[in-house]
Amino acid sequence: MASFFKSFVTLALLVLAIGSTNAQLSKDFYSKTCPKLFPTVKSTVHSAIVKEARMGASLLRLFFHDCFVNGCDGSLLLDDTSSFTGEKNAVPNRNSARGFDVVDNIKSAVENVCPGVVSCADILAITARDSVAILGGPNWEVKLGRRDARTASLSAANNGIPPPTSDLSRLISSFSNLGLSTKDLVALSGAHTIGQSRCVQFRPRIYNETNIDSSFAKTRQANCPRTNGTGDNNLAPLDLKTPTYFDNSYFKNLIAKKGLLHSDQQLFNGGSTDSIVKSYYSSPSTFTSDFVAAMIKMGDIQPLTGSQGEIRKNCRRVN
Ligand code: HEM
Ligand SMILES: *[C@@H]1O[C@H](CO)[C@@H](O)[C@H](O)[C@H]1NC(C)=O
Ligand SMILES: *[C@@H]1O[C@H](CO)[C@@H](O)[C@H](O)[C@H]1NC(C)=O
Q1: Is this prediction's pTM over 0.85?
Q2: In a 3-state reduction of DSSP, which class is residue 71?
Q3: What is the number of the ligand 2 atom nearest to the C-alpha of 228?
Q4: Known active-site residue 46
Q5: What pairing do the DSSP bridges indicate for beta strands 196-198 and 235-237?
Q6: Is residue 179 within 6 Å of ligand 2 at its C-beta?
Q7: Does 228 sit in the ligand 3 pocket, CB within 6 Å?
Q8: Which of the 8 DSSP states describes residue 196?
Q9: I want to staple 75 with a disulfide (CB 3.0 to 4.6 A). Which of 135, 149, 160, 191 is the partner?
Q10: In the CATH hierarchy, which top-level class contains the domain 25-161?
Q11: Which CATH topology does 168-297 take?
């Protein structure tokens, strides 16, 4: 009877382990094989941010753009080859995603201390966490054990990452397609408390929309000409006051109709997410804990584990 019970429990645990796709990710995945991993990544991220504060934002965004396209598998980092066109030239990334040279530096530093052990996908996860923490945001334990994809897909990147022209319903469905809730959507969008956007992404909003503070629109118009094709790459901060500090002011901006992107203001525009925005504005600690939970959840999207994929030596190409 006892042994029957024991094999039943074993079976039940096995079923649980198989049922949850990220069962193999764990916080101590490299504790034996690369004990210096965390300080090595952090010091390289830190130098990059000291050199340019915006880099923290750019690195955080890379993790989002990786995870939303065939899972967190480092596919975003692959350069184009003769056999595939990668994700770097997809619409959401071209002339926009940045920090690839910093990722190369981090990868080299990690290869120096433990060659051939740590995946590029995991490096993006740790880098995103460190960027947030260094810019004054929360710290958390990152789950690890992802492996790297051997291919990348331009079309998957074009289809997977929602454009800033999205309305609320499209934002909600693009997140829910990946198992992320509406609350996760709002919490993760709080990442726009840091970083910059190009004029081409917010021009229609500052000239044509009505749910925008008029003096804010004027301020942004000053460095983003009305005519399409002029000043397209001029930058403006996603959070008007503290774009290099990770706080909850993104939500304050939305309530004041000072969201920079159309998609930002959709989260506070009389719809179902208004109450979440208000709660993150009034309670920074609720934002922090929901953001951390959502980052971990995003990091769990379809990882390659076990013997799937590979541990790339150079994040830009397959071995
Ligand atoms: C909800 C849907 C989202 C949309 C439509 C969106 C769209 C955008 C756009 C259009 C930009 C400016 C790009 C440019 O002008 O070149 C941007 C920047 C940024 N996004 Fe998002 N984003 C979304 C969600 C997220 C999430 C979930 C994160 C991270 C958790 C994130 C992190 C960032 C950061 C940090 C920047 C600034 C990057 C830099 O300065 O280099 N975004 N986003
Ligand atoms: C604003 O809307 C008008 C009318 O739809 C359009 O012609 C114009 O190009 C738009 N301007 C911008 C900057 O989007
Ligand atoms: C300018 O670009 C916006 C957004 O892409 C577009 O909706 C609009 O029609 C364009 N306006 C002109 C005059 O081409």
Answers
A1: yes
A2: coil
A3: 13
A4: no
A5: antiparallel
A6: no
A7: yes
A8: E
A9: 149
A10: mainly alpha
A11: Peroxidase; domain 2 (1.10.420)
